[in-house]
Amino acid sequence: MRVLTGVGVGRGAVVGPVARAYPVPVVPADLPVPADPEAAAVELSAAFAAVAATLHARADAATGTLHEVLSATALMAADPSLVGAATAKVRAGAVPARAVGEVAGQFIDLFTAAGGYMAERATDLASVRDRVVARLLGLPEPGVPALGRPSVVVAEDLSPADTAVLDLDKVLGIVIERGGRTSHTAIIAGQLGLPCVVRATDAAGLEDGDVVAVDAARGTVTVDPDEAVVAAAQTRRAALAALAADTGDGATADGHPVQLLANIGTAQDAARLEDVAVQGVGLFRTEVLFLGAQTAPALEDQTTTYAHALSALGERKIVFRTLDAGADKPLAFVNQLDEENPALGIRAYRLVRTAPELLHTQLAAIAAAAEQTGGRPWVMAPMVATVEEAAEFAASARAAGIGTVGVMVEIPAVALRAADVLAHVDFVSIGTNDLAQYTMAADRLRGELADLLDIWQPAVLDLVAGTAAAGLAAGKPVGVCGESAADPVMALALAGMGITSLSMAPAALAGVRYSLRSHSLEACRAIAAAARAARTAPEARAAALALVAPEVREALAL
Ligand code: PEP
Ligand code: MG
Fold first, then answer.
1. 288 pLDDT exceeds 90?
2. How far is the CA of 292 from the centre of ligand 1 (A)?
3. Which atom, in ligand 1's list, is nearest to the CA of 434?
4. Residue 188 in contact with residue 265, Cβ under 8 Å?
5. How many CA atoms are closer than 13 Å to the CA of 118, on its beta-carbon side?
6. What's the whole-number average pLDDT of the chain?
7. Least confident of 133-142, 227-236, 287-296, 477-486
């Protein structure tokens, strides 16, 4: 058995056949002009027709949004003006793959300029272009293929948009060659409850149909697993299912409450929580709603979406995070700046400097949704750096009519001055993904810097502990909504530091609830102290793990 190792996301384990997803093709610079332009034009026309047929077949096999997206894209691939313009160029002597790119580019510009519904179609057209070009170059069509049976999707990388249209009935798990634990694709996979291994560097050798066992807790992908590995995956699934029977509120063994909350990205995610034992939503990543949008979402549309989410949660808490656009989550209607260091640029709350109407429309939509539903939304801004920004955001949100206002602690500057920030807001929520990125000056998308981005880095632990202490002193809630909240060992350390809520992918709730339930507050404090006394990240985790109850280590494969 060959075992590939990477970074696991989640605690699940699955076994299934590989289905490879392929990247967008790159057109080589030196493609020759066809000797017979007429034959090349016919071939190009056939490539468009083949793409349209494949997309129609996939659309027929799909339901809901996926069906709509695929049908619209199939129609586009058969559009006579598009095919006609591209074949005319080839007849006039152009290289076919380039002709497709140029013609599609012109249409994309037109669509984008037209705005509204037309602008939304630009993404479909880009998808047609990439599929036709792949065919012409003899490469597999990009993106996740149609899945005929439950499969483990293996890719070099998946964009958040690819991940968002996965056919959830057929995807068992995800293996990605690149990325890291906190790249957004891994987060979305975790969100969907799919066992995922990222940074599985040797996954390039996996082929369609290879059978693999994906163990997210161990971060391993076993090729051709033997019976023992298959049985272990089944045992793990049964153990996790048994833990899910506990539906109580989050608390330590001696009853110290630690709110357990879910991270969501869409109103459908909120709807899925209706039957989930969770005390609310600690992070609604609202930018996920608009990843494919070409134009700024209108007030009414946003209001409708937020009202759905508020209704789905009923009496439970829900924290809306205002748009966190930029860096690896570009939105087509903002961030037109050509930034050299986008993660350090006009990202997230900073967009208020260049596009203040985005924030104000969003706050108005959240307030209007609250009015419509009788819900009581909490709202927080991402990537706040100063006390002035926190105060300014709080004033804007309160002026819009929102009662509970907070900011995220993602930049060390704010963690260091948490007491001053807390004087202006009702709560803070620590985004440990970005806090680690900015504390360690390590791009969270660079899997090869995983050691620096380790959530157990002593400097990051110090900033989290300092923020928690400021919250305790101010008598205000301090939550954690980064990926570290989903780690059953880290959750204990966070509770021990005084963190009041943990927000995570719903699939992680059962493990964290069980871990908390199995330790007293005093034990959590001892775990936090042991981790903080360590000098390095591996030592911090080892020191914490050594104090975790043996039955928890066993059940969760820690
Ligand atoms: C974080 O940075 O930890 C966070 C929760 O926000 P995001 O992952 O969406 O940047
Ligand atoms: Mg963040």
1. no
2. 19
3. 2
4. yes
5. 9
6. 92
7. 287-296
Tell me the average pLDDT across 334-345: 82
**Average pLDDT of span 171-186:** 82
Ranges of each domain in the chain: 2-21+143-229, 37-137, 254-519
Q: Which atom of ligand 1 is nearest to the CA of 483?
A: 3
The confidence band for 193, taking pLDDT boundaries of 50, 70 and 90, is confident
Residues in the chain: 558
* Catalytic entry in 184, 196, 519, 524: 184
The answer, yes or no, to whether any atom of ligand 1 lies below 6 A from the CB of 167, is no
Q: What percent of the chain has pLDDT over 70?
A: 97
481 has catalytic annotation: yes
Q: Could you identify the atom of ligand 1 that is nearest to the CA of residue 285?
A: 9
Tokens 């995610």 belong to which residue?
A: 269
- CA 107 to CA 103: how far, in whole Å? 6
Amino acid (one-letter) located at 365: A
Any ligand 1 atom below 6 A from CB of 287: no
Q: Nearest bound ligand to CA 480?
A: 1
- The active-site residue, picked from 196, 424, 481, 519, is 481
CA distances from 128 to 55, 75, 293, 407, 458 (A): 9, 10, 17, 41, 48
A 10 A CB-CB count for 61 gives 15
Q: Cα–Cα distance between 86 and 103 in angstroms, integer?
A: 6
> What CA–CA distance (Å, rounded) separates 89 from 114?
24
Q: How far is the CA of 556 from the centre of ligand 1 (A)?
A: 24
Q: Following DSSP, what letter does each residue of 287-302 receive, concatenated?
A: GGGGTT-SSPPPHHHH
pLDDT of residue 335: 62
- The pLDDT, as a whole number, for residue 131 is 93
Enumerate residues 6+ apart whose C-beta is below 8 A from 308. Answer: 267, 270, 271
Task: Please provide the CATH number assigned to the domain covering 254-519.
Answer: 3.20.20.60
Ligand 1 binding pocket includes 322 (Cβ within 6 Å): no
Residue having the nearest C-alpha atom to atom 4 of ligand 1:
431
Look at residue 49 in the predicted model and tell me its pLDDT. 96
Ligand nearest to the CA of 184: 1
Residue 172 pLDDT greater than 90, yes or no: yes
Q: CA-based Rg of the chain, rounded to a whole angstrom?
A: 24
pLDDT digits (tens, 9 = 90+) for 394-410: 999 999 999 999 999 99
For the stretch 136-169, pLDDT in tens is 999 988 888 888 899 999 998 877 667 766 788 8
Q: Kindly state the tokens that stand for 293.
A: 């949008």
How far is 337 from 271, CA to CA, in rounded Å?
A: 35
Closest Cα to atom 6 of ligand 1: 431
* CATH 3.50.30.10 matches 2-21+143-229: yes
Architecture of domain 37-137 in this structure: Orthogonal Bundle (1.10)
CB 353 within 8 A of CB 393: no
Q: Lowest-pLDDT range, 80-94, 152-166, 477-491?
A: 152-166
Ligand 1 centre distance from Cα of residue 382 (Å): 8
Catalytic residue check, 256: no
In this prediction, residue 340 has a pLDDT band, given cuts at 50, 70 and 90, of confident
